[in-house]
Amino acid sequence: MIFLIFSLVAFYLEETGSRSGRFDSLHFRFRRWMQIGRSIFVDRTVQPNRLAVEDADPSKFCDLLKTSTTGSMARGRREIEPCSKTYGFPIYCAGWVPFSHIPTSSASQENENENENEGDDKGDSAASDASDKLLVALGGGGGEGRSGVPNALVISGFDFPSRSLSDEPVIRIGTESDLPYRMAIHPTGDGIICSFPNGSRWFKWDLRGSRDYKKLALNPSEESLTQLENVSLQALCFNKEGSVLATGSEDGNLRVFKWPAMESILSEVVDDNSVKDLDFSFDGKHLASLRSSGPCRVWDLNSSSVIANLARESGEIFRFCRFSCSSDDNQVLFVIAMHDDQGKIITWNTTTWKRIGSKRVVKDPISAFNISPDGKLLAVGTIEGGIVVLNSKNLQVHSVIKKAHLGLLTSLVFSQDSRALLSSSFDSTARVTAIEAKKSNGLSMWLVFLVIIVAILAYYFQSNGLIGNL
Ligand SMILES: *[C@@H]1O[C@H](CO)[C@@H](O)[C@H](O)[C@H]1NC(C)=O
Ligand SMILES: *[C@@H]1O[C@H](CO)[C@@H](O)[C@H](O)[C@H]1NC(C)=O
Ligand SMILES: *[C@@H]1O[C@H](CO)[C@@H](O)[C@H](O)[C@H]1NC(C)=O
Ligand SMILES: *[C@@H]1O[C@H](CO)[C@@H](O)[C@H](O)[C@H]1NC(C)=O
C-alpha cells in the first residue's frame, strides 16, 4: 500500500518535474530522490545520462584555485547536470552572444540577390532558432605561469529545449600567455572587447553566407585599442545601444569613450583606488561607478559631471552597482555591499538619490551580481559557488541554487530574453540555469505535499484500524 502511494507520488513528481522543473537543480534533486526511491522499491537501474566530473583534474588548476573550494572535487565523482560544462580553465568572464544582431557578410556576389529575396524567411527561422539555440562567450585561463592551464576565449552553444551546453565549443581562440580577464560584448553585434592584465584586444564577428551559428567566426581586429594599451581593466561595459564604452582600471582610471570612435567623453583618475564596477542607466544618461573605497558615484554623461555621491555606512564595502531596467519612473539603483562578510543589497532612489533601504541576502561574500534585462530579477553569486535569484521589486527570494558551482562565482549574466542565467566559476565550469515562472510551480509543490500528507494520514488511519481495509 505505502509502496503504491510512493510510486504514485514519484510518478507525479517525474511528470511535473520534467514538464515544468522550476529550476533544473530542483528538478534534478527530485529525480535523484526518485532514483533512490526506485532503486529501493523497484529496480536498481542507473540513469545513463549523467556525467561525472572525472575529467576535471584539480591538480591541473592554477594557484588561484587553491583558495577556492576544489577540495570536495578531489574526493571523487560528483554528478553534474547537462546545463553545466567544464572547460578546462578557470573562467573569469562570461556573456551572451547577441547572435541575431550579428550582420551577415555575403560570401560572394552571386549570393547577394538570393540573400535579399530570402531575407524574410531567414528572419523568421533565425528568430525561432535564436530562442532555442543560444551562444555564450567565456574567457579565462591559468595566466602567465607554468601551470599548463591554457588561456582562451571560447564560444559555446546552449540548447534550450534540452537545457544543455554543447560538448564542443563553437569557437576557441587561444590567447597565448594573456589571461582573458574581463570582456564587454557589443550589444548590437560588432564584436567583443577582451581585456587582459596588460591591455585589451578587440575581436570582430564574421558570419558568412547563411545565418548559421556553425558559420560564425571571431577574429582579432587589426584596429588596436591604443587608448587601453598597458591598462589592466577591472570593469568595462557598453551602453544599451553600443554607442558608449565605459572602462575602469586597476590603477584608478575611469574613462568613458564614444564607440567606435574612442573619443573620450569622461575621465577621472584617483590614484591607487581601483575601479570595481560600472553600469549605465536604462536611458543611457547616467553612469554609476564604484571603486575599492569611497562612495558610489553617479555621472551625468551629457555634462560629464558627478550628480550624486552615494555614501557608505560604517562597515560597508561596495562591490557592484546596477540600475534597475525599467522605463517607468520608479527606477532605482542597486548596490551590492559587503557588511561583516555578509552580502547585502542597498537600493537608492534615482530621483532624489536617497537611500531607500537595504537587505542582507546571503551569509557568504558576494562575488557576482546582475539584473535581468526585463528588470524583474536580480541574481547574486557567492564565493562558495551558490546562486540566489531575487525579485527586484521586493527583494524576496525567487530561487536558490546552493552548489551551482564548486568554486567562486566569477560572473552572472541573464540572457537577452531573461529566460536563462549564465554563471561561470573558478572551478572551470559554466552553467546555464533556466528561469521559470514561480507561481504555477509553487502550486504544484503544494499539491505534492498535500498528496504526501493524505497518503501518510491514510496509512495511519488504516494501520490503526480507524477505517476499513482499503
Ligand atoms: C603582456 O605582457 C606579456 C609579457 O609580459 C607579453 O608577452 C604580452 O604580449 C603582453 N600583452 C599585451 C596585450 O600587451
Ligand atoms: C606600453 O608598454 C610598452 C612596453 O613597456 C611601451 O613600449 C608602450 O609605449 C606602452 N604604450 C603606452 C600607450 O603607454
Ligand atoms: C546636454 O548639455 C547641453 C549643454 O551642455 C544642453 O544644451 C543639452 O540640452 C543637454 N542635453 C540633454 C539631453 O540633456
Ligand atoms: C523617488 O523619489 C521621488 C520623489 O520623492 C518619488 O516620487 C519616487 O516615487 C521615488 N521613487 C522610488 C522608487 O521610491
TrEMBL record:
- Regions that span the bilayer: 443-461
Q: Does the keyword Cytoplasm apply?
A: no
Topology versus the membrane, per the UniProt entry?
Single-pass membrane protein
Question: Per its record, how is this protein called by name?
Answer: SEC12-like protein 2
GO terms for biological process, alphabetical: endoplasmic reticulum to Golgi vesicle-mediated transport; protein transport; regulation of COPII vesicle coating
Please give the superkingdom of this protein's source: Eukaryota
| First and last residue of the signal peptide | 1-18
Principal place where this protein is found? endoplasmic reticulum
**Biased composition, Acidic residues: where in the chain?**
111-121
GO cellular component, as recorded: endoplasmic reticulum membrane
Where does it reside?
A: Endoplasmic reticulum membrane
Which Gene3D superfamilies does the entry link to?
Answer: YVTN repeat-like/Quinoprotein amine dehydrogenase
Name any one GO molecular function.
Answer: guanyl-nucleotide exchange factor activity
Keyword list, A-Z: Endoplasmic reticulum, ER-Golgi transport, Membrane, Protein transport, Repeat, Signal, Transmembrane, Transmembrane helix, Transport, WD repeat
Pfam families assigned:
WD40
Q: Which region ranges are annotated with the description Disordered?
A: 104-127
Q: Which SUPFAM superfamilies match?
A: WD40 repeat-like
